[in-house]
Design goal:
The chain is an alpha/beta fold and about 750 residues long. It folds into 2 domains: about 240 residues, Glycoside hydrolase/deacetylase (TIM Barrel); about 375 residues, Spore Coat Polysaccharide Biosynthesis Protein SpsA, Chain A (Alpha-Beta Complex). The chain has an 8-stranded mixed sheet, with helices on both faces. β14, α13 and β15 form a beta-alpha-beta unit. α1 packs across α11, α1 crosses α20 and α12 runs parallel beside α13. The chain is elongated, with a radius of gyration of 37 Å. The N terminus and C terminus are likely disordered.
Length: about 750
């Protein structure tokens, strides 16, 4: 069959494969977007959780002797309650024999409920200055707190010192806390206490503008008269002593219901309340103090006769504030459930990955020693001629190099080039190359464009030999490759042999990354699977088969995108043994761009999933088929699908830990895992006698290339779950791989 040239001036109609590829690309774009959105959503959940659990960009300084020249003297010398009614700074003091019991840094799941229980028992109200991030994590506690009659105030969202923050950051800290209160208890508040604040005489020129700004916005800033210093855990008696005002004076007293271990606070609080009541003190809230100073509380009955004045700072949340608050609480609830669950899952994944590395090293070492023993033999040497099948679709850049490498084969071969409807003159180039090389046993067969499996099947049916070697049209063999590849067929139980595929165009960054992956991942894996007798894939670039085994299995199937994995599993199920021959090397042209790499790996990943699903019946089979189903298939699912899907989260968690938990510990853990991988890669390079200099690319590979592979796999999973289909896609070739030896 000869190719035709379209008439001059008319555009060539797209081929069947080009049309299919175009339709497939259009169908896959939404799935790529969906996969990215899923990863983005998960990342956002983790960032939200990290933001809730740690102070971001917090100021850890301790102020010493800062100037307070801008602060009015009446404020510095005034009471602990600072208001800006009418734009004028005014302070309010706590009346004598009155205690405004205040608590900072909550709510806390352990200590706050215990504090509330004590206050309820003694019929005492408290004013709780709450951290917004904690409110969003424990909304039920805040709701109980308000329902019990206590008052709440803002203590920022992340417990950050606002003195040196931008106005936008100050606004954000307050607004986010108000949203959290709205979502938790349906209220907002006008009370505010700054983290790291104390008495009014500690206000300086850095913090004063913050209080002025908040005062303009209607907030009442609350300070203290007496500090229990319970956070120091000095002992119950000291806490009580330090919290007691002198000479019957009233006081705004500070305790903590969160921020650390508060057992001493819980022990001291009942005794303190009893002591102060015995001295004739009454307890109220900050709003209660202000009401009493205005006279509205004069002669008022205790708490049980009404609590509205004690919660006067509260306002019912309505409209957008209420709904945004509830949305925040819901998002935090998702994060609170998701992150711990993922942490547990990733711990399992981490153990599995490290276990796999250990198993690969042990089995690869055993495989290498076994196959390289001086007395090892597959049986009598295989010297009979074999058929080499080269499927080709628009391989004009590479096909001549492929045939040139086969011309130097030390094993007798016939070559069958199956031109799958090429439009670039591949068939003519192949014929001309064969003539110029003096290759007399080369056949070029042309067929309508039908895909790689159809081309391979055509070649198998046309083969004259009982052993067929399959290679890609962009691949070159070393002179001894075919001879090494077919020797295992001396064992009559062997039905197929996987060769050692190597990246030829490794001079680029992308090529070097793939070179590391091929040597470390693919070839170490194949050694392991060989010993376990459950090899999942014979690479399309280099593999050999008994012709009868392929025909009995029905040929190369078009049911999946991974015809190489499909036929390999089919041979296992038919009872044949599949082995790995490390000395049979092939040099292949790896994708040269990220777009082409994505296309290739997406097809591999999705095709592997299709093949596993197709052969799921092997799980219940007996014999070799059952061995693959119960050993090989779980290994492939766990280590090639499940763990890689979750592996990106390891990197996300590493970044999460560096930002929100412990930078040095997280970096150390990441470097330790990288060290394990480098050791595995170094051993793989040693077995394959590769140059170690490429290992310098591993850190960058882990940071960039590996992430791309994760996204490809996630994309494949989304496609599989949504029932999508994809045809085989042709990659652009450059013909860079022109020599078969290790001179590349």
């Amino acid at each position: 069959m000869t190719s035709t040239t379209p008439p001059r001036g008319r555009r060539r109609a797209p081929s069947r494969m080009e049309r299919a590829a175009g339709r497939a690309a259009a169908l896959q774009r939404p799935r790529v977007i969906l996969a990215l959105l899923l990863l983005l959503a998960l990342t956002c959940v983790m960032l939200l959780d990290g933001y809730l659990r740690a102070e971001v960009g917090g100021d850890q300084r301790v102020r010493t002797g800062a100037s307070s020249s801008d602060v009015p003297d009446e404020v510095i010398d005034g009471g602990p309650i600072l208001t800006f009614q009418g734009g004028q700074a005014t302070t309010v003091s706590v009346p004598d024999k009155t205690i405004a019991l205040t608590f900072d840094d909550g709510p806390d799941a352990t200590w706050t409920p215990k504090v509330l229980k004590i206050l309820e028992k003694y019929d005492v109200p408290g004013t709780f200055f709450l951290v917004g991030s904690m409110v969003s994590r424990y909304p039920d506690i805040v709701e109980d707190m308000v329902d019990q009659g206590n008052e709440v105030g803002v203590h920022t969202f992340t417990h950050v010192d606002l003195s040196y923050q931008s106005e936008a950051r100050v606004t954000r800290e307050i607004e986010q806390t108000q949203l959290a209160l709205a979502g938790a208890a349906g209220i907002t508040t006008t009370l505010f206490r700054a983290p790291y604040s104390s008495e009014t005489d500690a206000i300086d020129n850095y913090s004063w503008p913050v209080y002025e700004k908040l005062g303009e916005d209607g907030y009442t800033s609350v300070f203290i008269d007496t500090d229990s210093d319970d956070w120091k855990r000095p002992g119950v008696s000291k806490i009580i002593e330090w919290a007691t005002p002198e000479d019957g004076e009233g006081a705004s007293v500070l305790f903590h219901d969160a921020g650390g271990e508060r057992a001493q606070t819980i022990a001291a609080l009942p005794k303190y309340i009893e002591k102060m009541k015995a001295k004739g003190y009454t307890f109220t809230t900050i709003s209660g103090v202000m009401a009493e100073q205005r006279g509205t509380g004069a002669g008022a009955a205790p708490l049980q006769q009404g609590t509205s004045r004690l919660q006067a700072a509260h306002h019912r949340a309505t409209g957008a504030t209420l709904y945004e608050g509830k949305a925040l609480i819901a998002a935090v609830a998702v994060a609170e459930w998701t992150v711990p669950a993922l942490s547990a899952g990733l711990a399992v994944v981490g153990v599995a990955v490290l276990g796999r590395f250990g198993m690969m090293l042990l089995l690869a070492r055993r495989h290498h020693r076994q196959r390289n023993r001086r007395r090892f033999s597959w049986g009598p040497p295989v010297t009979r001629r074999v058929s080499v099948i080269v499927p080709a679709y628009n391989e004009k850049e590479c096909i001549a190099n492929t045939l040139r490498s086969l011309a130097h084969s030390t094993h007798p071969i016939e070559v069958i080039v199956v031109d799958d409807g090429s439009t670039d003159g591949t068939a003519e180039i192949a014929r001309e190359a064969a003539r110029s090389l003096g290759m007399t046993d080369v056949r070029v067969i042309r067929q309508e464009n039908a895909g790689k499996p159809a081309a391979l099947n055509h070649g198998v049916r046309s083969a004259r030999c009982d052993i067929v070697v399959m290679m890609d049209g962009d691949t070159v063999f070393e002179p001894d490759t075919v001879r090494h590849l077919v020797q295992p067929f001396a064992d009559p139980a062997v039905g197929a042999v996987a060769g050692n595929a190597k990246v030829g165009n490794r001079s680029t960054v992308i090529g070097a990354w793939q070179h590391i992956e091929y040597v470390m991942g693919f070839n170490l894996d194949r050694r392991m699977y060989d010993l376990l007798r459950c090899m999942p894939t014979i690479p399309g670039a280099i593999g050999a088969f008994r012709r009868e085994a392929v025909l009995d299995a029905g040929g190369m199937s078009e049911d999946t995108l991974a015809e190489d994995t499909d036929i390999t599993i089919a041979l296992h199920r038919a009872g044949w043994r599949v082995v790995y021959q490390e000395h049979a090397r092939a040099w292949t042209e790896a994708p040269g761009s990220l777009k082409q790499l994505w296309s290739q790996r997406y097809r591999w990943s999705y095709g592997t999933m299709q093949a596993l699903w197709k052969h799921r019946g092997s799980l219940t089979d007996r014999g070799p088929s059952g061995r693959f189903g119960r050993v090989g298939m779980p290994l492939v699912v766990i280590f090639q699908i499940v763990t890689p899907v979750f592996a990106p989260l390891i990197d996300v968690f590493t970044a999460y830990s560096m930002i929100f938990i412990d930078f040095r510990a997280a970096l150390g853990a990441w470097l330790a895992v990288l060290g394990v991988q480098v050791c595995c890669a170094a051993y793989a390079f040693r077995l394959d006698r590769e140059k170690y200099r490429y290992l310098l690319m591993m850190p960058l590979q882990q940071l960039a290339y590996r992430q791309l592979m994760y996204l490809v796999l996630i994309h494949s999973c989304v496609t599989a779950l949504t029932g999508g289909r994809l045809r085989w896609q042709k990659l652009k070739r450059t013909g860079e791989v022109g020599t078969p030896a290790g001179t590349v």
